[in-house]
Amino acid sequence: MAGTVAERVARLRAEIAQHNVRYYVYDDPEVSDAEYDALMRELTALETEHPDLITPDSPTQRVGAAPLAEFGSVRHAVPMLSLGNGFEDEDVHAFDKRVSDTLRGAGLLGPAEQAQYFCELKLDGLAISLRYENGELVQAATRGDGQTGEDVTANIRTIKAIPLKLKGQAPAVLEVRGEVLMNRAEFEKLNQKQAARGEKVFVNPRNAAAGSLRQLDPRITAQRPLRFFAYSWGEVRGLPSGLAEAFDESAPGMGAASTLPRDTHGGMLEWLSGLGLPVNVRFNHKAQGAEGLLDFYRRIGAERAGLPYDIDGVVYKVDSLAAQRVLGFVARAPRWALAHKFPAEEATTDLLDIEVQVGRTGAITPVARLKPVFVGGVTVTNATLHNEDEIRRKDVRVGDVVVVRRAGDVIPEVVGPVLEKRSGELPLFVMPTHCPICGSTIERLEDEAIARCTGGLFCPAQRKQTLLHAAGRKALDIEGLGEKLVEQLVDNGRLKTLADVFTLDAFELAALDRMGKKSAENLVAAIDQARRPSLGRLLFALGIRHVGETTARDVARHFGSIDNIMDADEQALLAVPDVGPVVAGSIYRFFREAHNRDVVRQLEKQGVAPQAEAQPQGGSLAGKTFVLTGTMPNWSRDEATRHILAAGGKVSGSVSKKTSYVVAGEEAGSKLVKAQELGLTILDEDGLKALLGQ
Ligand code: IVH
């Protein structure tokens, strides 16, 4: 009997460990949370009944031990190194040249051969060293100064991605190095929870990960969504017999000698993965020569914003361990590796002032005026603070040193103050009661986060934004009617409504600031072109609240003419597919305003004649759902997605029985496996192109 309980306990532990890997490493759970919880409950119950069966590597032991008074210190058997940095393409060419020259000199690379590299993401978390003895996790330490770190074993044991026991044939000693991090979505959720409980909110996922790990109470760490990826190793000793002792590593400065089972970096990571350690298989990639490295850098740069976690660059490592030994080290960084950094997405600077801006619909946005700072590849002087509540929540005050973030093409935002740098009492932000532009009252409805200027088109700020919106690419597409021009034409009283745009002539335009004769003529031609917009574009151009370009097109198709739309009541508007009460109410109220109907009549007088909206095309891929995985030779994922959408298909992130096609490129991962299991049709890039008729 006891034997069967012990067996069941062992099986449950193995199963739970397997589910942890699927969830935390591949983001692809095979069971629901409820099923996972049931396994944990069963294991807990068996262990409660048979306490003698409890082992330190049981998943029930991850809840967190008693708090510590302080962290002990750990001397790393092999020092934890740092990486040399590069920023420009030239740095990568120089790195590849240094590597190749040395390897050619040593006879490890032929004259015409290119050096082989292993490329990884530079994860923005904190480095950790895990020590396994005979397959058991016995110690975990932070990097510290590279020689000595802090003992965070009790905390590390709560991270589900980290195996407490290795699978298969583990060596007597194995030190694994990698990064502990937090996914962005999980970080946001954690911050919401912290704020709701009145507890500290973190500035970014890296600080949250570091704060969670350097917690004296492991029970708190256990509640934090930490993850881990392995990318290196320290001491490796006592490989089990049967594993060829392929390699002795005793590079200068490395301290203890290691015996390694593989002769490439990539091979070592595969080996670590086989022992159950999380390795970033989704992005790790082999490349040749400087151009191969730069391709990887560019591809990851394009995907950066869509990754689940923050990265601050990519890392290139010479793949051959023999070559690494020849290259050696300078100071504390290996000569065989380079961190190629992306422009930092965050920086700190002084918050000089908070002003408010008035948007097209009167929305008042507080804007931070900053001491200029270089972030996300540009110099930033203004950043959004979103709204009043957000300022309160973040406790941002004029005079603070603040963290500014600009990720991808997203508008720069103030993340929060650096409280340690605040000196004395700083005043709280107060929302003005009147619009700084037109003096109208600012009001904020009870259930809305946004305060609004009530001036409507009387407010020059709203008028300017409305005109710019109407001239935009998705609306009337009037090239040349930009911010500076609209500014002048509204300020000098020439443009009061959209219809006035169609009365502008080249002569008066040429007299304006920054306008020549030629650009004035071009603008008049562009305005003339805009007299034949599709009905949907015209409707969108009017700037009705809640009416985006798609809604505008749907409404236009349904009603066929501007008069029909203007006269439709809410009931009639609700008959349009995807139009709900908010949109219907907004359109209806817009056209009950005499001045809005007037604008339409004036536009007609100026010769603006909307064209019937084209009816939707079925598209050759209508009704088909695609999942993309891996890297295609020519198309990026975004490109492939655009083509599929254009042909009427859909693109989904996860494979299921409902998936019509899985498009698999190089290094396709678990999605491909799942597709094969489900017997779905799998295509490569050429197959997709054929399907698209290309
Ligand atoms: S390798 C001998 N690989 O970057 C090489 N480090 O600037 C040791 N990091 O302390 C490090 N992602 O915290 C390596 N794929 C990666 C990495 C990585 C992030 C961090 C790590 C290290 C720092 C060095």
Topology:
Elements: H1 2-24, H2 33-49, E1 73-75, E2 85-86, H3 89-105, E3 116-123, E4 126-133, E5 136-142, E6 148-150, H4 153-156, E7 173-182, H5 184-196, H6 205-213, H7 218-221, E8 226-237, E9 247-249, E10 258-260, H8 265-274, E11 285-288, H9 289-303, E12 311-318, H10 321-327, E13 329-330, E14 333-334, E15 337-341, E16 346-358, E17 363-375, E18 378-384, H11 388-394, E19 401-405, E20 413-417, E21 442-443, E22 451-453, H12 460-471, H13 483-491, H14 498-501, H15 506-510, H16 517-529, H17 535-541, H18 549-559, H19 562-567, H20 570-574, H21 581-592, H22 594-605, E23 625-629, H23 637-646, E24 650-652, E25 661-664, H24 670-678, E26 681-683, H25 685-691
Parallel strand pairs: 2-15, 23-24, 23-25, 25-26
Antiparallel strand pairs: 1-6, 3-11, 3-12, 4-5, 4-7, 7-8, 9-10, 12-15, 13-14, 16-17, 16-19, 17-18, 17-22, 19-20, 21-22
Helix pairs in contact: 1-2, 3-9, 12-13, 17-18
Overview of this protein structure:
This protein has 694 residues and is of the alpha+beta class. It has 6 domains: 5-53, Orthogonal Bundle (Helix Hairpins); 104-341, DNA ligase/mRNA capping enzyme (D-amino Acid Aminotransferase, Chain A, domain 1); 346-421, OB fold (Dihydrolipoamide Acetyltransferase, E2P); 459-530, DNA polymerase, domain 1, CATH 1.10.150; 535-606, DNA polymerase, domain 1 (Orthogonal Bundle); 625-692, BRCT domain (Rossmann fold, 3-Layer(aba) Sandwich). Strands 16, 17, 18, 19, 20, 21 and 22 form a 7-stranded antiparallel beta sheet that branches. Strands 2-15-12-3-11 form a 5-stranded mixed beta sheet. A 4-stranded antiparallel beta sheet has the order 5-4-7-8. A hairpin with a 4-residue loop joins strand 16 (346-358) and strand 17 (363-375). Helix 3 runs antiparallel to helix 9. Residues 81-83, 120, 122-123, 127, 143, 179, 231-232, 315, 334, 337, 339 line the site of 2-(butylsulfanyl)adenosine.
